[in-house]
Specification:
With about 400 residues, the protein is of the alpha+beta class. The protein folds into 2 domains: about 160 residues, Orthogonal Bundle (Transferase(Phosphotransferase), domain 1); about 220 residues, Transferase(Phosphotransferase), domain 1 (Orthogonal Bundle). Helix content is about 30%, strand content about 15%. It has 15 helices and 12 strands. The radius of gyration is 25 Å and the shape is elongated.
Length: about 400
Amino acid sequence: MIVIMLSPEQKQRFFEGLRLPMSPAEVLEAFGHLLTKFKQQEILNYSEIWYLGLQSPKINGSKSSPQNNGYDDSEMYYLQVPHDHFAYRFEVLEVLGLGTYVQVLKCWDHKEEEFVAVKLLRNKECFYSFRKKEIEILEAPQKDKMNIDNVVHMKDHFCIREHFCITFELLGITLEEKNRANKSLSTSEVRKYATSLLKCLSLLKKEKIIHSDLKPRNIVLSNENPDSLKVIDFGTSHYEEEAIANSYIQSLPYRAPEVILGHVCSVAIDVWSLGCIIFELCTGQKLFQGNGKEEQLSFMIEALGMPPQEFLALAPYKNIFFDSKGMLIHKQNSEKKIALSRRKNLASRMRTKEPHLLDFIKHCLEYDSSLRNTMRPEQKDDTRRGHAASLDLVA
């Protein structure tokens, strides 16, 4: 194989005869007549210009325009234009996702010459508190220098047009999309993904980070290697020492019982989510999918039995869900909404006969979080401290 080494002069890139990156002064002299008055002022805030998107349609931004100078919609999401520039460096290609707090764009980074995912926070002051915390959280997993702990890697972060942005490596489809296409995965695939998720949760446990929204949509497969996955979206994550009782973290189908009942949370809530995810990958169905917290608890009880009395006795919200005799209170029509097909215990709903996998899921779904899998593979099973998440459970 012949390797051709390029000199620094040969590696230089040009646009319309101008060397990249261009300075704002060079852009204004050569292309100022093609820029809006708003951009003629805005571009002065950038020291390097890598891309202009001159052939794309433009939003005629103006300081007199409503909704962030005309660059946001009514919900304060950024109005992306295909092939327009983003921060005078990235070329917008398509929307990858839209969430309560953010939108994610697929872009081409003209500086690094690679595809990236750009996460934009909605332009609302009430969301700004997520900004600093997410960056702090994302910097801890960057210790995964060998890229073996399956946590998404942050590339950069910056602000543009009142939106806080984070750039990430571009990955492939989500585990939710893969599972939906296949209805359910083979046992060998489930083992493979479970092992990868254990590595991620082991790192987060070591750093005392609670992901707080672990679900198939936030687990993304690699484009290069479909056997490789990474956990994304740390927007609602926090350190364990900062945890408070918050019944609105975690998506409902993956929400741990201590979250619903108002206990202070720990990294163990992600272990509960892991159990729900592994079940879903095995069966193609969500394990618990209530229309509200009441039904969610009722599904848990049908599959796992009643929570221990000690667990309920210390639950701040127990009187909302349980009567004085410790029986679950249903809303008037709640029982009618429970499909008969769901009224089965965990074992009968699993489609695998492999006892290790079922045992692994059961140990993720202990009501008492201290008895759940501990994400410490070297520790032997000990019910006083929780079950070690040995890879033998899924191997």
